[in-house]
Design a protein that fits this description.
Number of helices: 4
Helix content: 25-40%
Strand content: 25-35%
Mean pLDDT: 85
Shape: elongated
Strand order of the largest sheet: 2-1-3
Number of domains: 2
Number of strands: 6
Length: 173
């Protein structure tokens, strides 16, 4: 038998008081003609109906819950405009840390669909793999060297990226 149980209601089934974040609620699951029915109650109303509800032959289960806080979308580790600005600033840097940083920024912006990968080239002269990106809105092209990072190097690169972001945060203050 496939049971369809509705989600928590927005308010008390008896008095209609809406449930707010952190409010306790009490739930009764009972058999009805066509399956199961869920009823949610505030604490005050539950005290009034609990005795008769718990002894009803149709009662299957009861539980207490707390309305969770609304989930806020997580902050972006790097805002889009910040990532674009930093890419422009560090794109022509020659240091290994900055090259790794630009590569990571390129990946972030590609994932956010700000940059589109257009081509991957091999520069025989430098022995490097180059990724050509195009800005989705402006059409501007970026050529970013792929440092060929291995999984073992990611922790080190994470530290490099964090150091550059911290340096940028301090200079912006």
């Amino acid at each position: 038998m496939d049971w369809q149980i509705q989600a928590r209601s927005k308010g008390c089934m008896k008095c209609g008081t809406p449930f707010g974040e952190g409010d306790p609620y009490y739930c009764l699951l009972a058999e009805v003609d066509d399956g199961l029915a869920r009823s949610d109650y505030c604490q005050a109303c539950w005290q009034e109906v609990a005795q008769e509800t718990l002894t009803a032959p149709t009662a299957i289960s009861t539980w207490r819950g707390v309305v969770p806080p609304k989930l806020m979308p997580p902050d972006e580790p790097i805002k889009r405009t910040t990532a674009e600005t930093l890419l422009g600033k560090y794109l022509h840097s020659t240091g290994a840390d900055e090259k790794n940083f630009c590569f990571i920024l390129g990946l972030i912006l590609e994932r956010k669909r700000i940059l589109k990968q257009r081509q991957v080239m091999h520069d025989e002269h430098r022995g490097a793999k180059l990724v050509v990106y195009e800005h989705a809105r402006s059409g501007e092209s970026y050529v970013i060297e792929d440092p060929g990072l291995s999984l073992a190097e990611l922790e080190q690169v994470h530290g490099q990226v964090a150091a550059i972001l911290e340096r940028e945060r301090i200079s912006a203050s």
